[in-house]
Model the fold of this input.
Amino acid sequence: MMLHYFLRRTFLIAFVFVALTVLAFSLSYLFPGEVLNNVSGLTSIDPEQQQALIQYYALDQSVIMQYLGYVHRILAGEWGLSFSSQQPVLAEIIAVFPATLELASYALILSFVLGIPLGLFAAVKADSFFGKLISGITLVAYSIPIFWWALLLIMLFSLTLGLLPTAGRINVLFDIPTTTGFMLPDIWLSDIPYKSEATQDALRHLLLPAIVLATYPTTVMIRFTRDSMLAVLEQSYIKTARAKGLSRAQVLYHHGLRNALLPVIRQIGLQFSTLITLAMITEVIFSWPGIGQWLLDSIYQRNYPAIQGGLLVVSCLVIVVNMLTEILHTLFNPLARKA
Done:
């Protein structure tokens, strides 16, 4: 049964990969300009190079052969050159991708740390003042536009109180050697004498964009956890456990909590995809040097090879995370395995 499930998931992943690569491949023909320039990333091509490049990219062959060659180049790491910098697109993506992944990961962790306990409390105390207060604040926070919320926090904590910086990942006075691309691990792995000061400064730069980015998924997590817990508390086995004499805490922990959190696992993938989308806005507002800001700059510059590569990376990341969460949900949920 499990082998059949994983085979179906593998086939689905392969199908999605083909669909994504077909979409990314077609962009070379949909973008303005010459196809050869869009594929290679070269802004100027000599007549001597043109014929060699046409043969290399199989532009003199059928579309299917061109697509197969594109997939081969993608797997080999040959993603073309950026129009703006004339540097390999894959190298630029590797340089900016850890910043986005770091910001999104911390925001996702923050949303789970705050969202799940508050959602459970709102479900257990649904009729109390605090339960209704949590639901009301959640509804208001869910409705706030992220760009307005970010500017409001910048005005309060940065411009008015002067507590937090407005932009960047770390102060330019700190020279941090790049090891993993993630700021905090790079600081801890380095041998710099000002490691403690750099860590504090990096956390101050991270706090505001992480809060802004975590606001929306936190509200969704609170509402989803609350509804899931309320649905579980209405089940017959919960009433049977209470009738057997178990305390409210025992029922909530041993029977309610475990079953209510199973659907929450699926929210990891859904909220991660939302975070990647919202991260593009957050990175622009806070000048966070991630793939979102890099991709938007590429759109403004009409950097078509970079747009093509960024679309492929972001789409693959979202799909892989969703697939992993579905697999985890199936492994932990016996009913899902049986279905």
